[in-house]
Amino acid sequence: MSVRVIVYLIVLLLVSIKGIVSYKKLTAPFKYLTVYILLTLVSECISRYLAVTIKNSSPPYHVFVMIEYAILASIYKLLIDNTSVKKYITISIYVFCITSILNSIFLQKLMVYPTNMLLISYTLLLIDAFILFFQMLNHPIEQQLSKQAVFWFNTGLLLFCASVFFTIGSYNFHIRHGISNILINNINYYINLLFYILIGVAIWVNGKRE
Length: 210
Hints:
By secondary structure, the protein is mostly helical.
């Protein structure tokens, strides 16, 4: 296991521990976020194990992509006030999971990384993130942004989701033209680290709120 992978897993572990320690103090969205981080850690450990044993780390992601979307979308359902958007989010969770299962059966089977569903998932979550930012702008609270856990969470997810389109698009371009993906891999790695660190900050801020 490389140093980069170890650092990545350590970050997930530390954020998970922080979430567990603060769990009783957290509001509902950030309890969901703690569960999300724990399941991410489990999924990543399984994928790394399979990468060594069967030389393919894709199978866990077919399950995790559904869990990830369901949890993150549920968090937005709790944070967004608009009733119509809440209904859209609820419906989207069911439709997404059904579509993901069909994708795994007919299009991108278990040994293929489910890029189709990742792109759909992050597109929907980007929409939720923009809606939440719009809500924050139109209904500001009298508190510094640095003390708003929602701000840290939404910023992290917005950056992360936006980076996925760049990463996958760049991968495809580089593969078609025989260009090395080292730079893209590095960017993707550090954006992932940043995302989970920002989630850690969000959990920490939410746990210490007055």
